[in-house]
Amino acid sequence: MKQYDAVIQTLERLGGQATLGQLYVEVMKISDCTWKTKTPFASIRRIVQTRPEIVKIRPGLWALRETASGTGRVEKSLPVNLVNEINHAYYQGLLAIIGKLRDFDTFIPNQDRNKRFLTTNLGNIRSLSAVPPFSYEHFVSRSESIDVIWFNQRKMPHSMFEVEHTTDFQNSLIKFSEFQDFSARFVIVSDSIRRKEFETKISYQIFQEIRPRVKFLDYEQLVRDYEWEMLHSQSAFHL
Fold first, then answer.
1. Could you list the residue range(s) of the whole structural domain that residue 15 is in?
2. Which of 85, 110, 157, 210 lies 20 to 30 Å from 95, alpha-carbon distance?
């Protein structure tokens, strides 16, 4: 079997679409395809970028052209708020997977647990169904609305993420301000074109205390981090 056929077959088996990170894992399971290269993952990346049968539908997510066309038609027929919800859930899912691969426990709000991430629900990706009682009840309760939290082995918050696809950064920054006495990392995840908007909001005097601790992570970098962690999780990558 040719290498590009293995990638296409894997996409078909995964429902017509998959992240590049998923392809790194699943394509290697096809036994009758030989990868005579020391960099098979680079070959997979080249295939999805160049084969006419495959198209990119959002950062890090690739699909068979016929599937992507159908997905596009479906999303165009949806209300804008539902399309935004699909995008929001996608990035939440990537963050939770990265956290798991880095040996953190992950929490996604219960109100989001039934939202779809590719072929599953976000509730199936997170490792925690409730926030650990890491502090006073009002802090724990407030943290339950944060988009994604990574908890360390002591069940303390290590990183808090807010995905801002279209909404105002200010609401997320106010949330982060409430946790400024914890040694957690604060991260805003958004499109790179919104970086200037973020920089304007974080410069407000009210956010002076948390300003040095809040990082901006754009979608493309998030995807690169996800793909790196998926690569690193494969035993062949360590050889």
1. 3-76
2. 210
Q: Could you tell me which of 144, 82, 153 has the C-alpha nearest to residue 113?
A: 144
Quick one: pLDDT at residue 237?
Answer: 41
**Residue 135 burial (CB < 10 Å; 0-12/13-18/19+)?**
middle
Average pLDDT on 205-226 reads 96
Torsion over CA: 122, 127, 128, 134 (sign): negative
- Residue 103 token pair: 């040996």
Residue 84 is predicted with a pLDDT of 86
- Give residue 28's pLDDT: 87
* Residue 93 sits in the same domain as residue 37: no
Identify whether residues 112 and 217 lie together within a single domain: yes
Q: At what angle do helices 169-177 and 195-202 cross, to 10 degrees?
A: 40
Pairing of strands 157-163, 116-117: unpaired
Residue 44 amino acid letter: I
Q: pTM score, two decimals?
A: 0.89
Q: Which of 42, 54, 62, 47 is nearest to 1 (CA)?
A: 47
Give the 3-state secondary structure of residue 152. Answer: coil
Instruction: Work out the mean pLDDT of the chain and round it to a whole number.
Output: 91
Whether the per-residue pLDDT at 104 is higher than 60: the answer is yes
**Domain co-membership, 100 together with 180:** yes
Nearest by Cα to 18 from 66, 70, 60: 60
> Could you identify the residue written with the tokens 């392809």?
23
State which of 37, 55, 76 marks the end of a domain.
76
Q: Are residues 220 and 135 in the same domain?
A: yes
